[in-house]
Design goal:
Glutaredoxin; globular; 9 helices; alpha+beta; five-stranded mixed beta sheet
């Protein structure tokens, strides 16, 4: 189980490093700029495909500020790289937000929900921790709140949240946002010094893996 104090400390540390605007200008080294996963966590992808996963939480301000960088970065990924988001269900609120992500994905409305949900929390300052508040938000953006709520509570989404919890544990993620490259390495701003540097280290790891 993740140590809560250590986890919160890593979030605060990430924010301080971001504020400093540190840039990454050295050869990435395991144990200093990223953490190697031993043993490797299998990705299930065919040989030659590289998986990159961003572990996040909608309520995390650092994840919100990181999202535009990731959006721009992923547009230039090589064709053999598969990028995905993974919500971290560390407690009840985080798990409820993970249900939002998986329900939106299942209903094929993730593009309509993902960024607006981030903005509702971090720009509008809305408290979207309860299911009722979440479904009011869903209704306000023009989606069927009843259908969305049913999907959030569905066995399919419950299974996905459980799988996400197991995968985050396997990745040994201690803070968000974190990037996991091919089940081999975890990269965080707490190690690299900034969100921009995180992506540079991820690029380096992709090149090493490919």
């Amino acid at each position: 189980m993740i140590n809560r104090r250590r986890f919160i400390g890593s979030l605060i540390g990430s924010g301080a490093l971001l504020a400093a605007g540190t840039s990454f200008a050295r050869e990435p080294v395991a144990g200093r700029d990223y953490r190697a996963l031993i043993p490797r966590v299998p990705t299930g992808l065919p040989e030659g495909r590289v998986q990159v996963v961003e572990v996040f939480w909608y309520g995390c301000p650092h994840c919100y500020s990181f999202e535009p960088l990731v959006d721009a970065w992923k547009k230039n990924l090589p064709e053999h790289v598969e990028f995905s988001h993974l919500p971290a269900p560390f407690n009840d609120t985080w798990a409820r937000h993970a249900r939002v992500f998986f329900a939106a994905s299942a209903l094929d409305v993730l593009e309509q929900v993902h960024q607006p949900f981030f903005e509702a929390i971090h720009v509008q300052g809305r408290n979207l921790t309860s299911e009722s508040a979440i479904l009011r938000f869903i209704d306000q953006i023009g989606l069927d709140a009843d259908a969305f709520g049913a999907m959030m509570r569905s066995p399919e989404v419950s299974e996905q949240v459980g799988d996400a919890s197991l995968l985050v544990q396997a990745f040994q993620v201690e803070g968000v946002p974190s990037m996991v490259v091919d089940g081999r390495a975890v990269v965080s701003a707490g190690m690299t010094g900034s969100h921009e540097a995180m992506l540079e280290v991820v690029d380096h790891l992709i090149a090493q893996t490919s």
